[in-house]
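Hi F.,

I've been meaning to write this up properly since the lab meeting, where we talked about keeping a consistent format for the predictions we share between groups. The idea is simple: the sequence comes first, exactly as it goes in, then the structure tokens exactly as they come out, then a line or two of notes. No screenshots and no reformatting. I'm using this chain as the first example so we have something concrete to point to.
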Amino acid sequence: MVWLVLEEIALVKARSRLASLRLVGGNRALDFVNTITGRLTADPTDFLPDFDSMIAWSMHAGVVTAAERDACILAAANDRSPKAVHRQALVLREALYEIFSARAEGQLIASGNLKKLDEERGRAARTWRLASDGRLVYWQWPAADPALALARIAAAAAELLTDQPTPRLRRCSGADHGCAWLFLDTSRGGTRRWCSMQGCGNRAKVRAHYRRGHPA
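Output, unedited:
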């Protein structure tokens, strides 16, 4: 009982930290990659510092339901695997960052990163089952898998990479102040430059306005 109370306190703190994190990727795999802000700076902020934060983000991003979250936490505690699952999450996140950054920049995707994604997708695929309510057929995932969120993220990433025609994948133009967020450009003309106008877009406008008023 004490453990459950402590776990709930940890989740509440994690949810509070995540409240300001925007979901702008247009795909859960990209939103997962975007859980680091200021990635290209000397002092980036990681919103997934531990297993509790990963689970809280999964709820925040709609990757798991509340019931699935509770089942994942209990399964991780029984297996004594929270740290292992967290390490697994970080490995997957970095592989996805490299994969999608390369795709956005028109570069070759490193086979090692693709292998890491495929390993996670393959691990998860061994547990998927086709289910039906009599009318609809759908994939059923084992709710008691501590890495359930990672399974769904890997599946979303693989689907995005193999989509035809290839979606317009972009990297935020705010690299000059350290932003490396990724997103799908669904604008009519394919001209979206910023991860969000409220963040990087607004900062760019402020800097441009300052430069116009203070020419070198």
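Notes:
The beta strands are 36-37, 45-46, 129-132, 137-140, 169-171, 182-184.
Confidence is low (pLDDT under 50) at residues 1-5.

If this format works for you, I'll send the rest the same way.

G.
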